[in-house]
Amino acid sequence: MDWKTLLRTLLFLLLVWSLCGTEAKGAFGASPAAPPASRGDAVCVPRRLWRWRETCPEYGPGTTAYRVAHIRLPDPLPQLPVVELKPDPEEDIVPFTYAYVQRLPLAVYRHPMEAKLGLPPVRVMLSGRQWVSVVGMVEYEGERWVQINKDEFVPADALVFGRPSSFQGVYLTDQPAYPFAWINRPVRPSRVPQGPPDPNVPLYRRYQLVTIYAKEFRPPQEMWYLIGPDQWVEQKNVSVVTVDPPPAGVRPGERWIEVDLFEQTLAAYEGERMVYATLISSGRVGATPTPPGFYRIWGKFALSKMSNPDVRDGSPIWYYLEDVPWVMYFHGAYALHAAYWHDAFGFTRSYGCVNLPPRDARWLFEWADVGTPVWVHITPPFPETGGP
Fold first, then answer.
1. Separation of alpha carbons 77 and 239, rounded Å
2. In whole angstroms, how far apart are CA 57 and each of 44, 49, 64, 220?
3. What is the DSSP string of 158-198?
4. Residues 301, 356: one domain?
5. Residue 26 has pLDDT above 70, yes or no
6. Total tally of structural domains belonging to the chain
7. Which of 59, 81, 237, 317 is the most buried (most CB within 10 A)?
8. Using CA atoms, how far apart are residues 178 and 194, in angstroms rounded to an integer?
């Protein structure tokens, strides 16, 4: 072999060696120098993602597709260690029949006869949202009257009888390995995050329980959750429960309650183990918020009347709720209690208290003692890079 052939061979081997070294670095070591392209100019195909990650947007379509393609679900899918409590349908959900006052102002009489005689009422309900407990019903001169307290009667057509929510949370037999959630509005999952609803997937109904296997953030403020094979739902359609460690102030093994104001969920713990979870309705953000903080239950009452302490009857923002059951005060006048007047759990609704479905309120009332810690906090699922 002459020297020219030898030189060409050596140059070829040197070139092959340099290329192999570059590929090895790209696969196993530091990324090779990126081409002169900004993040916004990058077309992030899988090959580019492997070699020049710094040129690809962290949450762009390419990187999202890359991450989604590499999700591996367990097979078979694990079952949540929960018991969905289903009480006897004939069981009374709340201790009274309740009714909403639909006609205001409303005169309250000692007896229907006094109304017929033109005698003055014992009191007048003037304004706002008012709910009453129904003691019984009578008929007087062909008109139906409802007794709402001792020596207090109102015309039956002034009231609308309520239907308390029958929803109830779950008891956990073991610590869940994955976060879980309730569907809070009907939704049909998408095959990929931000994709169109998949017509081949059944509609998920409100209050249906699902497991969350993965999540994917999309700017500016969208979080998508994987709830089954190729089944993604946006965060706004679910209320999530995640196992959290006890906050500072909880003693080892002590029972405590976690209230998540962002997710509108509540979890009960015994030490580090979650034993119960459900949905709530806390105070309206910006209007009548529930204050975050670490508290302890200072008082328990099987029944309590509740009203707006800042105004009197006659104000449009007045409210009066008779015989609210299973009340546990944890911070001044803020309480955990049953809400018999709505079925909007999973969404903010209250004047600052933590509304619970009646069956959950009763369970917690029997489980928690005075002094039980209550940790109220806000934990949005979005990363800090997702905007304000």
1. 21
2. 8, 10, 10, 13
3. GEEE--------EEESS--SS-EEEE-S-B--BSSTTPPB-
4. yes
5. no
6. 3
7. 237
8. 22
Structure token pair of residue 11: 């140059």
CA count, 13 A, side-chain hemisphere, 125: 26
- Interatomic CA distance for residues 186 and 340, integer angstroms: 23
Residue ending a domain, among 117, 142, 161, is: 161
CB atoms near residue 102 (< 10 Å): 11
**Short-list 381, 226, 23, 65, CA closest to 56:** 65
Complete edge-to-edge strand list for the sheet that includes strand 152-155: 136-140, 143-149, 152-155
- CA dist 158 and 137 (Å) reads 13
Amino acid sitting at position 240: V
> Residue with structure tokens 């195909």?
45
Enclosing domain of residue 23: 3-69
pLDDT at 16: 40
Element (H, E) at 335: strand 334-338
Q: Out of 4-13, 189-198, 253-262, 330-339, pick the least confident.
A: 4-13
Judge whether 278 and 257 are in contact, CB under 8 Å: no
Judged against a pLDDT cut of 60, whether residue 37 lies above it is answered with no
Q: Say which CATH number the domain at 193 has.
A: 2.40.440.10
DSSP, residue by residue, 337-370: EE--S---TTS--BSSSEEE-HHHHHHHHHH--T
> 381 vs 16, 120, 284, CA distance in Å?
48, 57, 19
Q: Please give the DSSP secondary-structure letter assigned to residue 28.
A: H
pLDDT surpassing 80 at residue 20: no
At residue 231, the 3 state secondary structure works out as strand
Residues 262 and 249 grouped into a single domain: yes
Task: Tell me how far CA of residue 89 lies from CA of 93, 169, 201, in angstroms.
Answer: 9, 16, 31
**Separation of alpha carbons 130 and 313, rounded Å:** 10
Please compute the mean of the pLDDT values over residues 38-55 and round it to a whole number: 55
Instruction: Give the position of tokens 């709340």.
Output: 94
State whether 365 and 313 are in the same domain.
yes
Same domain, 193 and 279: yes
Residue 300 tokens read as: 């328990």
